[in-house]
Design brief:
Blueprint (H helix, E strand, L loop, with lengths): L2 H9 L6 H9 L14 H5 L3 E2 L9 H8 L3 E8 L9 E2 L3 E2 L5 H11 L3 E7 L6 H4 L3 H15 L3 E5 L8 H17 L4 E7 L7 H13 L5 E5 L8 H19 L3 H5 L2 E6 L1 E2 L5 E2 L1 H13 L4 E5 L31 H8 L27 E2 L4 E4 L2 E5 L3 E2 L12 E6 L1
Parallel strand pairs: 1-2, 2-5, 5-6, 6-7, 7-8, 8-9, 9-12
Antiparallel strand pairs: 2-3, 3-4, 10-11, 13-16, 14-15, 15-17
């Protein structure tokens, strides 16, 4: 379903029942602030995905200042590449010894925000595949929750794991255990989207949840990488998925929508579909008018304009391949959370835009921390560089995009 997301993970190493629904509605209040209890649940429902260690991670403080965003969905927690049942970031960075992601989380919380961790994703080995049962899978995830004091977690169940019935049983069982052992924990379950809502494996996952008596805060689908032509195809899939939720759990339409989420892909998808800011607005209108439970996207690493804007007809992990101002897509998540984001400047096509720092020069030597302007954005050097154009060197590039000027 998502070859780009498989590549991105490889870069790192390759219910709601009556009480729950009441808590969800309470979480709709806009402008919630971080405290000992975390954010309101509506913010966790609006948290876009962010890879904090790969794909030129953007400055979370800059995103928060530019958009009003408060919540981030950090991706992805996986089993170790060499085997075992202990949590890592991307298969290579053990959670037990992590300081880098912890630093990102501290920075976000210092500005009044919070994070959720996403486990699974496309590609890599999942803990549900390696751990012997649901209890040991839950124990591994509990390490993540405890270390980072999480109030939210996302189970991204897709290829190839969701084709493994034993692994899915472990993941759903673990989610249920975590929900029981961590009162108030916000739990989302994300899976692949198809034109009829979700495919055979997605439906089997829902049946497994029903069998185990597990109901998360939402079940979300990813309507992209499956022949989706913009927002109309996505809202059609969401309507069809609502029917699947009704038939699986015996809910009426309104209850199903209160358990349903959308997880999109901003810009150009892996298969060459295009989702513009206008498409996101259409889906957002659908989600809010139907009382949906979640609105998120993959990813903030991509929520900035490429150079050139169409990225020469390719999909990138570090920019959207459509014309936009930096962090335009994040603002739709902010709106879903109930807040009003600041306005964005239009994308600039002229080198330097209205930046106040000096323009990038191919002949100049830059060292860590040096800032330049280029194509309407401000960039910061991550290490020594010369003649590496900002915005053109992909996920391992030296330049960190600090946003439009």
């Amino acid at each position: 379903m998502k070859p780009l997301r498989a590549l991105l993970c490889g870069a790192a190493g390759a219910a709601l029942a009556a009480a729950g629904l009441t808590a969800f509605v309470t979480g709709h209040a806009s402008g919630a602030t971080a405290d000992a209890a975390g954010l309101g649940s509506r913010w966790y429902a609006a948290a876009p995905y962010l890879m904090p260690l790969d794909n030129n991670p953007p400055d979370t403080s800059a995103i928060m200042d530019a958009t009003g965003l408060k919540a981030f969905q950090l991706a992805f927690v996986l089993a170790p590449n060499g085997g075992g049942c202990s949590p890592t970031w991307g298969g290579t960075a053990p959670v037990s010894s992590d300081t880098a992601v912890a630093g990102t989380i501290s920075s976000i919380r210092a500005k009044g925000g919070d994070v959720s961790a996403s486990v699974g994703g496309y590609g890599g080995t999942k803990l549900g595949q390696n751990c012997s049962d649901a209890a040991s899978t839950a124990a591994a995830y509990q390490q993540v929750i405890t270390k980072y004091q999480l109030k939210a977690i996302d189970f991204d169940l897709e290829e190839p794991e969701y084709e493994n019935t034993t692994a899915i049983s472990h993941e759903i069982g673990a989610a249920k255990i975590l929900q029981q052992n961590n009162p108030g924990l916000y739990v989302s379950v994300t899976t692949a989207g198809t034109a009829d809502g979700t495919g055979w494996f997605g439906k089997q996952m829902l049946n497994e949840a029903k069998t185990q008596g597990f109901v998360p805060d939402n079940f979300s689908i990813m309507p992209f990488d499956g022949g989706f032509a913009g927002a109309a195809a996505q809202t059609s899939a969401l309507t069809n998925f609502n029917s699947i939720l009704q038939s699986t759990f015996g809910w009426n339409a309104a209850t199903a929508y209160a358990h349903e989420g959308f997880s999109g892909m901003n810009g150009r998808s892996d298969t060459g579909e295009f989702f513009t800011p206008a498409d996101f607005q259409t889906v957002l209108d659908y989600a809010t008018s139907h009382g949906m439970a979640r609105f998120t996207f993959w990813s903030l690493n991509r929520d900035r304009q490429c150079t050139p804007p169409d990225n020469n007809g390719t999909t990138s992990g570090t920019c959207s391949s459509v014309p936009q101002a930096a962090w335009d897509f994040a603002k739709y998540s902010v709106k879903f959370a109930g807040a009003t984001p600041p306005s964005s400047p239009p994308p600039s096509s002229s080198p330097g835009g209205t930046c106040t720092v000096a323009a990038w020069s191919s002949g100049t030597v830059y060292t860590q921390g040096n800032e330049v302007s280029h194509n309407g954005h401000q960039w910061k050097a991550k290490w020594w560089t010369q003649n590496e154009e900002p915005g053109t060197t992909g996920e391992w590039g030296v330049w960190q995009d600090e946003g439009a000027c």
